[in-house]
Amino acid sequence: MQPIILTGTPQLVDSFIRPIIRAVQVAIGLMGSAILFFMGWMWWVPVPLALSFVAYELYFWRRGDRAQAVLLQDGALRLVDPLAEAPLVLPLAEITVATLYYRQLELDEVELAIVFGDDEDVRFALRVLTTAPFSPLPHDIPADVYDLVFGGVAGLFRALAPPARRPRQTFHDSDGRLLAALRAQLPDEVWRRTAIRLWPGMEPEIDLFGYFEGPHGDWLVLDGRQWKRSDDSGSIEGWSFGGAERSAVLFSGLDKQRVEQLPLALIHLSGRTTVAIPAPLSVGLAQPQPLSSDLLHTHAPEGAALLWHLLVHTPRDRWPPRFRQMIAERESIYADLDTALPG
Predict the structure, then answer these.
(1) Residue 239's closest CA among 264, 273, 263, 281?
(2) Which residues pair with 246 in a beta bridge?
């Protein structure tokens, strides 16, 4: 099989600041040359301008982004990064769970974020844009649906894996070859499983944009109607839904940061496993419960994956009453919400 290679799009910051830095560089160089000219040091007049060009090129050579590449070859996914010492290699045989998120960006463009993991941890995450026809599988998570219900899914890709395990760039799979090959080479049961990261504690530290600081402490894997994490496991039978609030300092404009109460959706799987999910739009939709030190927190997109898996494997008449009530209230905002949910 021929290797599939996708090239990333370098970050665009440089394209905005280059003209500004160039103008400053030329101005400083010309000023230095003008001073030498008026001092009569004619042989040295070109030197300041020439040095300014050298400094400009050295600066952007050191800080400039380089295109990454993702390869699917010889039964492994590879991330090749010119700025890294060695490529990241993930054999497909080691992948036991693949969680795919999708959302419509333009009329003919879909964003796909795929998280690959094993039974112990997340291994790799990949963000792809495609214009090929996309048909989601039952366990693929529609990020837009969750975002309209709870909110907080805007920074989708950054929330799915630590920086060392996700590329900093986006890849364009215009004809859908990479996804088609991954669907074909990974067993169906891998795509039917779901896994998310967990941060234990009453109020784990988050940054101004709502991302947890520090490494995650647990890894929850759902397989059909069963789930497990490091020191607990069970069935999804009887899962329940609630709400809570936590304090957080979030970005709300320059010099406008303040302590706020962030609504949380709580999903109870067992007496020792309750997952708290940021849910900015759920204010007043559930009576807040007190926080406890044994809570397990996750990001909104990962919480969307957990909730979607539960809904796929739970008949509608067994959905928690509080959740069904919330969906009914949300239909005034999103009329097609009920038909967008599984079941």
Answers:
(1) 273
(2) 262
User: CA-CA distance, 266 to 254, in Å (whole number)?
Assistant: 31
124 within 8 A of 92, measured Cβ to Cβ: no
Q: HSE, CB side, 13 Å, CA atoms: give it for residue 48.
A: 17
Question: Which pair of structure tokens corresponds to residue 30?
Answer: 């010309």
Taking a C-beta distance cutoff of 8 angstroms, is the pair 60, 13 a contact? Answer: no
Spell out the SS3 assignment of 216-235: CCEEEEEECCEEEECCEEEE
- What digits encode the pLDDT tens for the residues 131-189? 999 999 999 998 888 777 777 666 788 888 998 898 988 899 989 999 999 999 999 99
The span from the CA of 161 to the CA of 68, in Å, is 17
List, for residues 274-315, the tens digit of each pLDDT value: 999 988 776 555 566 778 888 999 998 999 999 999 999 999
DSSP E strands in the chain: the ranges are 4-9, 69-73, 76-80, 88-91, 97-106, 109-117, 122-130, 141-142, 170-172, 193-200, 218-223, 226-229, 232-235, 240-250, 258-270, 273-278, 288-289, 296-297
What is the token pair recorded at 119? 């039974």
Predicted TM-score (pTM) of this structure: 0.82
Residues 80 and 115: their CA atoms lie apart, in Å, by: 18
